[in-house]
Structure formats: structure tokens, C-alpha cells
């Protein structure tokens, strides 16, 4: 008879650096809340997820409407280099869209 084993390791298809995001119109407001978190890992995960979402022009428009640009400007001065790098990448992708210009 087979026995079930539960591993402490994550499955290989799950990326621990990406934040779980909400569906639809609630995704970006949830990520904005996570950017205000005092935990560095939560901020980094939110930035990784946001970087994937801003490739869609509709998400860029919604991010501008919500007020992400002010938050991203303050994150450019963050003490962590990963946060600064992903923030710069997000601003670059947003600037490439017609909506973000």
C-alpha cells in the first residue's frame, strides 16, 4: 500500500518571488497595498508581479488612475537595490505604452 509523503519543498512550477495576485480590477489595488508593506520580501514580490502586469496597456491605464506613479517615484530611493531595479523596469515598460507617456 502506498503512503503519502508531504514535502517541505515547493513544487518546481511555483515561483516564490511572485506575489499571488487578485483577479480582475482588484489586482492592482491589492499590489499597491503590498507596496506599502514594511516587509522587504512583500514589496519585492509585489514589484515582480506588477512588472508582469504592466505589459498590458489596460493595466497601465488602471495603475496610473490608482496613483502608482507617486509610489514608484518614492521606491526609486529605496535602500534595496532589487526594489530600485524592478521599479525602474516597471517605469520603463509603462513609458513604452501610449497610455504611460
From TrEMBL:
<protein>
    <recommendedName>
        <fullName>Rhabdoid tumor deletion region protein 1</fullName>
    </recommendedName>
</protein>
<dbReference type="InterPro" id="IPR011989">
    <property type="entry name" value="ARM-like"/>
</dbReference>
<dbReference type="InterPro" id="IPR016024">
    <property type="entry name" value="ARM-type_fold"/>
</dbReference>
<dbReference type="InterPro" id="IPR042856">
    <property type="entry name" value="RSP14"/>
</dbReference>
Amino acid at each position: 500500500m502506498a503512503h503519502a509523503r508531504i514535502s517541505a519543498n515547493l513544487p518546481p512550477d511555483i515561483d516564490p518571488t511572485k506575489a499571488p495576485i487578485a483577479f480582475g480590477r482588484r489586482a492592482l489595488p491589492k499590489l499597491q497595498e503590498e507596496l506599502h508593506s514594511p516587509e522587504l520580501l512583500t514589496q519585492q514580490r509585489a514589484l515582480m508581479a506588477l512588472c508582469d502586469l504592466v505589459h498590458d496597456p489596460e493595466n497601465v491605464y488602471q495603475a496610473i488612475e490608482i496613483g502608482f506613479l507617486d509610489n514608484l517615484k518614492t521606491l526609486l530611493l529605496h535602500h534595496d537595490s532589487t526594489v530600485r531595479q524592478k521599479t525602474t523596469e516597471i517605469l520603463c515598460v509603462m513609458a513604452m505604452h501610449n497610455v504611460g507617456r
